[in-house]
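Handout, section B. The chain below has 251 residues.
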Amino acid sequence: MKIAISGKGGVGKTTIMALLAHHLNKTGHQVLLIDADSSPHMAQTLGIEHPEEVTAIADMRELLRERSGYTEGSPFYNINPEIDDLPERFMLEKDGLKLMVLGAIQTGAKGCACAENTVLKRLLTKLLLHADQMVLLDMEAGVEHLGRGTIAGIDHLLVVVIPSQSSLRTALTIQKMARDVRIPKVSFVGNSIAEPEDVAFIERGLQAPLVAYLPDAAEIRLAERRGTALTSLAATFAAPLQKIVDVVCSG
C-alpha cells in the first residue's frame, strides 16, 4: 500500500504523516517513510539525532549526475539509471520506522535538472514497488509535484486541510490534479480543528466529508518548538489516526 500526503504549506502534513507512521508501526505494519519535500524535516519530526546532518539525496547533485551519465553541455543522459544500491546506502531507521530523505531538486535560475530528476523519479518508483510495506510519501507543499507526475504509482492520496480559505483552494486544486494523473483515491484530513464549526466550514468548502480530523493541539506545538519527536504523541491521537488507516486500507 502506497499512501501520499499533500496540502498547502504549513497545514501540518509532515506531523500527521509521522503520527500515522508511528500508529501503523505500533499496530503491526512495516513502514517506510519517504520525505520528498523540497524542504525535508521528517528526520527531526521522528526524533532522529542530528537531523541537520542528514543530506537529502536530491542535494547530492554530483551523485545524481554521475548515475544519470550526464556530462556538462551534453543533451544526453541515461533514462534508466542504476539506483539499486541507493536505498541501502541512505536508509535511516528510528524506533522501527525506516526513512528515506529524498528531497526535491531546486533548479532556481539554473534551468532544467532533467537528468537529476530522472534518477530521483526512478528511485522513488523502485521504493514504491515494495508490496510488503506501508509506504508513506510526504510530498512537497502545494501542487507542483502533481504537475511533474512524481506522485505516480500512489494508491491513496491524503490531502490535509485546515479551516482557512487558502487551504481549501489548494486542497481543491490538488484534488483536481490528482484526478488528472489518475490517483485511484483521494481523501481529505482536517487539522488544527478548534471547534465543530471548523469541520463544517471545511466540509462546506470541499463539498466532501473529512475522513478524520486532528484537534488544534498545544502539545504538538510545544514538541515542535523543543525539537522533540512528535511520534511519542501518537497514542493521544489514536482514534483519528485509526480512522485514516481504516479508510486507506478499505480497498
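Note. The beta strands are 2-7, 31-35, 91-94, 97-101, 134-138, 156-161, 185-193, 210-215. Compare this with the example in section A.
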